[in-house]
Amino acid sequence: MNYDPLHNPYPSRRMTHYGRRGMVATSQPLAAGAGMDMLKQGGNAVDAAIATAACLTVVEPTSNGIGSDAFALVWAEGGLHGLNASGPAPGSISIDGVRRRGHAEMPRLGLVPVTVPGAPAAWAALSERFGRLPLTTVLAPAIDYAERGYPLSPVLAEAWKRGVQYYAQAATGEEFRSWSDTFAPGGRAPRAGEMWSSPGHAGTLRAMAETGAEAFYRGNLAERVDEFSRRHGGFLRAGDLAAFRPEWVTPIAVDYRGYRVWEIPPNGQGLVVLMALNILKRLDVGDREDERAYHLPIEAMKLAFADGLAYITEEKAMPVAVEDLLSEDYAAERAARIGETALEPAPGRPGGGGTVYVATADGEGNLVSFIQSNYMGFGSGIVIPGTGISLQNRGHTFSLDPGHANRLEPGKRTYHTIIPGFLTRDGMPVGPFGVMGGFMQPQGHLQVLMNSIDLALNPQAALDAPRWQWERGKTVHLERGIPEAVARGLAGRGHDIRWAAGSGAFGRGQIIWRDENGVLAGGTEPRCDGTVLAW
Fold this sequence. Notes:
Radius of gyration: 22 Å
Shape: globular
Oligomer: single chain
């Protein structure tokens, strides 16, 4: 990756970090420290990623938890490996069953949208296949922070406050009481610098460390989840947990201007990134300060999202094949639709059949791109009493339309927003990257990659650059820092331009690039409490 390490045209107090023996980049300093501890204890990048991810369930519960899903891209043993640890819908759920509960669409909160959590199984699978240290060592920092407590960081505290305000209004049933007891002790959110602990969370992590996550899926913890779900009318059962296994998958990729960009295959939305890049590489984007350099990526992303939202679900249930959506002919056809003015996106017809991110590297050449999330902040609002297990609400993305590709079905995995990214060149690893933030994630991937590849920005500058976010139709939100002239030019092309009030909607990412000499260069977001630790 050719870039000027000192050049950063965007306001930032951060510089790109460099190291040789290891690096951890994530959204919380304490979690980054947990990962670095593993490297210095003789662990590898996989051990560091697991330690960081487990610690994030404690030190950033506003975005993820033990009840989250996870995905990973791991460069190890000379190749790239993909892990899909997203859990399916419960075996007893159905469209009719949800509708009988009075829902016209999948609810956001409560037990109905709860799917099988995959994160604990991801940690165990990664550790077993590629890890070097025992899980009892790797999870020890997370256990310690849960048991002894830690002081909240500023951005975390603000997100926590917003979450408590929302759940106090929206989550009022008896089934939500344990969530309030856990995350709003005394009836309020803890403040920045204030200590928070969760002994039940520590006990759960300890049980999983000692059993390789078996306690969660086929032990006492599974029984407690089952009992709570039955008592409050949920669909999730111990049998659903016992049947779950994460899946090792073959990553998918496209070539983009001399690099190869890798994503997890569906049910993840990484396919949207690749479709957009496939379209964009056929277009002359031009100068960064020209609104055309914004117009064309926005239009490419809109077309890719239109296809993604229409077709992405569990891969075996997709009505079109991934290879058809990524074909060069289809990309050319979609690119031909883009003109000089904003279009209303619609899916094409190809031929043929609240999140946390972790990037880690070690001195041996192993690199990990790892992401896990509840979905929508704290998730479902359900915490299993005494365990610290905060359950995700991934089922919210299922459709109750029987004709939709992503329709709700028992045992099916839904359209998933969280996506780890990875970059290679000439068959060699460049490194992991990711941007958190729901449906902003593909848009963040696209913009970070364009910043890195097209503009040759260093990792920190690539993350610092102001972003845009397509919402729907012709509506585009712009982050402050994008020139007013660009905004006026986009409006003149027919885009409905809205200036965002803050940076929270534009994602939060991390990058680690590795050069041909093994030197690591890392960056993290100014939009979060993020940290890069280098060794």
